[in-house]
Design goal:
Length: 393
């Protein structure tokens, strides 16, 4: 554990968009050695083994990731990131997560920005939408909910830090569950609440907006597309300077987790019960599945563990403590970290990015650990919390 392994050296980030990379003959299914696609597909394949997915699924999902990334997959890693995506600290347009419940193998997910490097925010949104529609054709699901919201989140001149992200929840058989993340600030940060309210209304959740807690800003609106038992519409919010006490009062789910349980998670994940305003905000997510009551059926709290730990050894200990509280074997997590990097945990902080505690009606509590690809840089260990720009998530 103390010698979990880096291959990534810190590089400067670009200040302007690079031109799009031409598609290689035959698409992006074959990864060029030393490219972003080769690195991330390799990481994903090894994570598939940790999550109990077979070699055929691992290979299929590796190819899916490379294809979804598009031209940037072929970009050599000795060049800087193609743009300053805030999906990760080092601007890798890929993030992994393992979702744990007691007594079962973890569920592996990969979050990516399919329009990364498209040339502008508008082009990124169009490329992302095209990638999702291609997935819909391939796996036979409808994009109707997303199409209903296109003018709200993918306008002609979008604003904000991103256009569209896509998450794949990987299952045996090579057909993932698909989630799409949209930017409420696309029509302006001052209209983000209005945009979220209108999106909820269009999808039949007329009363849902009024159920949300107070927050500093709306971060994402997420849609489950395709083969979900209960497709969710999720609203993510930011809470700057979050404390354990405030975190305990965020859930609007009924019945839901009690304040004491949420506080305990916050304290384990952060190592404190107090607010630290210089770090990224905590995040809450409320999931809506029915339209009658306007109440959420799910609640998740996310803590940016990397901002509360000196290095990844400490962050890993926090994650193991949270898993232990819920009776979850930490072995898959400990096996996942060397599947992603060969650096020592004490040599950086940020490999473990977030810890999440999720509650959903009809399901046991779920702990999710978010793992960075670190394709371009490793954030050095810190002795004090970083002072971050207000726009950083």
């Amino acid at each position: 554990m103390d010698h979990i392994p880096t291959h990534a050296a810190s590089r400067s980030h670009p200040t302007a968009w690079d031109p799009p990379i031409p598609a290689p003959p035959g698409g992006y299914l074959l990864e060029r050695p030393g490219s972003l696609g080769a690195l991330t597909a390799g990481q994903l394949r090894r994570l598939c083994a940790v999550a109990g997915l077979g070699p055929a699924d691992a290979d299929s999902y590796g190819r899916t990731l490379v294809d979804a990334l598009g031209p940037v997959a072929d970009r050599p890693l000795d060049q800087p990131p193609v743009n300053s995506t805030f999906l990760s600290d080092d601007h890798t347009p890929v993030e992994y997560s393992l979702s744990f419940t007691p007594g079962t193998a973890p569920t592996l997910r990969v979050l990516l920005e399919p329009g990364c490097g498209a040339g502008s925010l508008a082009h990124s949104g169009r490329a992302g939408l095209a990638a999702v529609r291609e997935m819909a054709r391939r796996w036979n699901f409808s994009t109707a909910p997303l199409d209903t919201l296109r003018d709200l989140f993918l306008p002609l001149s979008p604003e904000g830090p991103f256009a569209l992200w896509c998450a794949l929840e990987l299952r045996p058989g090579g057909v993932p569950k698909v989630k799409v993340y949209l930017n409420p600030a696309a029509r302006g940060a001052d209209r983000a609440g209005e945009t979220v309210r209108e999106a909820l209304r269009r999808l039949g959740h007329d009363r849902a907006f009024d159920a949300l807690p107070e927050a500093d800003r709306h971060l994402f609106l997420a849609l489950d597309l395709g083969d979900w038992e209960e497709p969710r519409l999720k609203v993510y919010q930011a809470h700057q300077g979050l404390s354990a006490a405030r975190a305990g009062g965020l859930s609007r789910m009924e019945p839901g987790p009690g304040p004491a349980e949420v506080r305990a998670f916050f304290e384990l994940a952060t190592g404190t019960d107090g607010a630290r305003p210089a770090v990224r905000p905590g995040q809450s997510c409320h999931a809506f599945t029915e339209t009658a009551t306007g109440l959420p059926s799910g609640f998740t709290l996310y803590v940016p563990v990397r901002d509360h730990a000196r290095d990844d050894t400490e962050a890993c200990r926090r994650a193991v403590a949270v898993l232990g509280r819920y009776g979850i074997d930490p072995a898959p997590l400990l096996n996942a970290l060397p599947a992603v990097t060969d650096r020592r945990l004490e040599d950086g902080v940020g490999l473990l990015a977030y810890l999440g505690l999720a509650h959903q009606h009809g399901h046991p509590p779920r702990v999710t650990v978010y793992i960075s690809a670190e394709a371009y840089a490793v954030r050095p260990p810190s002795t004090v919390p970083s002072v971050l720009p207000e726009t950083v998530l």
